[in-house]
Amino acid sequence: MSGRDKLQLGQRERLIFALDAPDREQALAWVDRLGDSVGFYKIGMELLASGDRSGDLRLLAVTVLTSMDGKDLQQMGISGEPADIVVQRALSAQASGIDGVIASGQEAGVIRAACGPGFSIVCPGIRPGGPVGDDQKRTVGVAEAFQRGADAIVVGRPISHASDPRAAAEAIQNEIPIP
């Protein structure tokens, strides 16, 4: 692992909003809109590439996208079950000094068992109330992600598409177990 410690997160910081805004102005508008209902943000490629950001960055490696399943991996020429591939990639990331991984909540438990407690696991594709049949194939609900070993979750559309995004974020906060 790198020289930095695992993410130390309080209750409110365990929800990460997928801030997929193209520029700083729109990103800050979302931060203002959500207020203190969200403590951390995952910035998208557009904002990252714009150079319009600041702050202490931690490196997290993506294992397998939550929109992919075993069939998708086979079509890419990757053999094996998603859980096995995710663990292999998490161990490689850890050996390379990466701070943690981004992985489906379905695999958080096997990653935690393989990499130990000092390695951060952030789970995207979280659907409050569980899977909803959208483009995300390997999803879990809020509480289940944490039960399986997640340190934090990334939530996008269930917040950004809600009629009241702040209320949606607060509702998700209420589902997050106290560490």
What do these coordinates show?
The chain has helices at residues 24-34, 45-50, 70-75, 82-95, 108-115, 142-147, 157-160, 165-175, and strands spanning 15-19, 40-43, 60-62, 100-102, 120-123, 152-155. By secondary structure, it is an alpha/beta fold. It has one domain (11-175): Aldolase class I (TIM Barrel, Alpha-Beta Barrel).
Give descriptors for this structure.
TIM Barrel; six-stranded parallel β-sheet; 179 residues; alpha/beta
As laid out across the biggest beta sheet, the strand order is 2-1-6-5-4-3
- Which structural category fits the helices and strands? alpha/beta
Order of helices and strands: EHEHEHHEHEHEHH
| Architecture (CATH level 2) name | Alpha-Beta Barrel
What summary fits the major beta sheet?
A: 6 strands, parallel
CATH class: Alpha Beta
Number of strands: 6
Count of spatially separate domains = 1
**Roughly what is the average pLDDT, rounded to an integer?**
82
Give the radius of gyration: 16 Å
What shape does the CA trace take?
A: globular
The helix content, as a percent range, equals 25-40%
* Total number of helices: 8
- What CATH calls the topology is TIM Barrel
